[in-house]
Amino acid sequence: MGQLDGKTALVTGAARGIGRAIAEKLAGAGADLVVCDLEHAWLAETAQAITAMGRKTLALATDVSQGPSVQRTVDEALQAFGRLDILVNNAGITRDGLLVRMAEEDFDRVLAVNLKGTFLFTKAVARAMMKQKSGAIINLASIIGLIGNAGQCNYAASKAGVIALTKSAARELAGRNIRVNAVAPGFIETKMTAELSETLRNKMLETIPLARFGLPEDVANIVLFLASDASAYMTGQVLNVSGGMVM
After folding, report:
1. Among 50, 85, 143, 145, who pairs with 7 as Cys (CB 3.0-4.6 Å)?
2. What number is the average pLDDT over the span 108-130?
3. Alpha-carbon distances of 169 from 15, 118, 173, rounded to whole Å
């Protein structure tokens, strides 16, 4: 038997990278999946992979920054599965630039997707979980939200906001047996890191005690832990997955 047998999970930003790894990890543990993204072709591949694992899957195009789109997704998920036991707020973007040169729209867009999107989905799913009197919400933050990074004021602000939102929501929802935790990844092998120059990659590796970039599965393993009963006495926590970069 899997750790998540009989449960339904909703993962945002599930088309590829960390989001897809999380969705597949939860499916492998027995959960049925609702996967959301705006990258239609990649999302279809994620859904096919999960279906091939023998799990029920619903793939939905969702703009996490828009309330009506989020509510429509949650309504369709509840209609299809009857309940939502796990929410993973993974959808996120970057629009990097130095503070004095950053366009206002780049600041607004990153906050809208990364922070507002987390708020909208948490609010919509929490209503269903409150009726069930159970649930696990896992928010993807970042070590950048803890330590900051030059050229990423917008991203750092959004992820610091996700951490604060996580702690506040955890306090509000604990009485209904809903746990809210966050994962703060460091440098993970994704499309973004693959495009970095060898010089920059080596410079980044020097800051990581374990001397390697993380893999999407490294993050997915921690999300599974937080989604399962193995973490039943944890809420309001931020688990750092950075190879020791932040201690």
Report:
1. 85
2. 98
3. 26, 11, 6
* 174-213 tens-digit pLDDT: 999 999 999 999 999 987 677 777 888 888 899 999 999 9
Sheet of 178-185, strands arranged across: 57-61, 32-37, 8-12, 86-89, 135-140, 178-185, 238-241
pLDDT surpasses 80 at 20: yes
User: Degrees (nearest 5) of the Cα angle 28, 31, 37?
Assistant: 90
Position 195 scores a pLDDT of 72
Cite the active site residues: 155
Percent of the chain whose pLDDT exceeds 90: 93
Residue 137's DSSP bridge partners are 87, 180
